[in-house]
Amino acid sequence: MRTLVLVPIIHIDADLGKAKDEIKLVKNRFLSQKRVEQHEKTISMFWDRIQDYFQEQDVKNMKIFQDGMAAGGWVGQKIVNELALKQSRNFKLLSDLVNKGAVIMKTEDIALIQQEHALFTALLQSKRFFSTMTNYLKYRFYKKQLLKKRDIYIAGQINSNLKKGEKAALFIGAAHNVACFLDKDILVSALKNPLLVNKYFKAFNRRKKNDQEFQYLSEKLRCKINGESKA
Question: What is the value of pTM for the model shown?
Fold first, then answer.
């Protein structure tokens, strides 16, 4: 039996690199300060729960697959340590896992990452209405295709590198659906339901606010992890 712990991740500003300032401007334009502050608290508590879970696990030799990680081995470990120093909760946790014996694995195809990043950057940097709409439609059209290609590639990396009797963890954005491309003998369990995370993001970004729904989903994400749930 091969087992995979699925960790649907929520990024903080430190994870977003050069795009964080543009994304912050968009948030401030459409969202209230109160909602943004609550979102930041929810993210912080979400990562607290994930960290609590892994502190109770034996992670020696656990293989770690990470959203956006296009290198493994010492190169991957160097990337993890550099991003951990920039206060990324995601990578601070990975750095701690590596120190306890976990192994960073090459997860993604760099060419696919670069394509998606180029589309996203073009959208964020659009200034005029026509260019914004053009880049938005282009981003929407190609994003689903690229996301599926990335999922297939990530699943292939896990299928090839996770051996019988081994355990791995996949830290991945909730919009992904890697599980459906995994080999049937890999037992997948999710620390948080990816559908819940997706609903939360939609509630957070919705212009027509439903504070009751947003509050409910925030509380669900802040809950302690009681064991693993099947993905």
Answer: 0.83
